[in-house]
Each structure stands twice: as structure tokens, then as C-alpha cells.
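User: I've been trying to design a sequence by hand for this structure and keep getting stuck. Would you show me what you'd pick, starting by listing the structure so we're on the same page?

Assistant: Good idea, let's start from the same input. This is the structure you sent:
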């Protein structure tokens, strides 16, 4: 079976996908209006949606004169694909090495550490 193509999104693509994931369907005008600053031009959004459609991440249906876009991938699929790529490229495909790297990071708050400890305790109980 061929390897599944990784979901890779540019910053612009991710901004548009976030709107689509939130709204489920949207026109170009809807997306332009929903984007957080900095704004993107209507034509930039339209072009980027075409790119996303070429990649197989969105599709559209015609509604009057407008195209209504909807995502073909969900947020968790995109996140998992990105995480798999990150693991492979920077952490030798080892989730443990990534976890240790994150745990050694000084940016973890006390709340983050408490959550990590709860997850570890739950994993240990279920093993």
C-alpha cells in the first residue's frame, strides 16, 4: 500500500483551514471576513483555496454565483500528520524523545506539568 501523503499546510493555508474547520462550510467572502488580523486579500484567499483544493484538502459546491468550500480533512488528521512529520524529521520517529524534549522545556507552566503528571499516572494504571 502506498504511503499516505502528509498533510502539510502553509501559514496562509492553515489560517483558511481554521475558519473552515470552525464553520464547516464557507464562501471566499465568509473566510475573508472571519480571518483574524492580518487580513488577506479576497484574491489571495481565492487562490489559496484553489491550492488547498488541488492538494485534496478542501472541495467546493456552487451556490448561485459563489463557491461554498468545505474541508475534506479534519483538524486532528492534519495535526497527526504534522506530528508524524515532526517526529520523523527531528526526533528519530521517537515519541519518547519528543516528550522528553517538551518536558525539559522551561516554558511548561505548573498547570502543564500537573496535566502531564495526570496523563502519565492514568497511562501507568491502564498498563
Amino acid at each position: 500500500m502506498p504511503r499516505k501523503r502528509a498533510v502539510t499546510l502553509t501559514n496562509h493555508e492553515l489560517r483558511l483551514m481554521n475558519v473552515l474547520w470552525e464553520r464547516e462550510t464557507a464562501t471566499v467572502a465568509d473566510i475573508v471576513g472571519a480571518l483574524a488580523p492580518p487580513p488577506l486579500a479576497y484574491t489571495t484567499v481565492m487562490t489559496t483555496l484553489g491550492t488547498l483544493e488541488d492538494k485534496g484538502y478542501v472541495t467546493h459546491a456552487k451556490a448561485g454565483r459563489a463557491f461554498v468550500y468545505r474541508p475534506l480533512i479534519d483538524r486532528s488528521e492534519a495535526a497527526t500528520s504534522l506530528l508524524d512529520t515532526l517526529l520523523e524529521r527531528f526526533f528519530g520517529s521517537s515519541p519518547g524523545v519528543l516528550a522528553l524534549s517538551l518536558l525539559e522545556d522551561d516554558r511548561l507552566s505548573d498547570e502543564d506539568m500537573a496535566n502531564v503528571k495526570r496523563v502519565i499516572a492514568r497511562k501507568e494504571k491502564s498498563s
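That's my pick for every position. To get oriented when you compare it with your attempt: The CA atoms of residues 15 and 36 lie 8 Å apart. The chain is about 60% helix and 10% strand.
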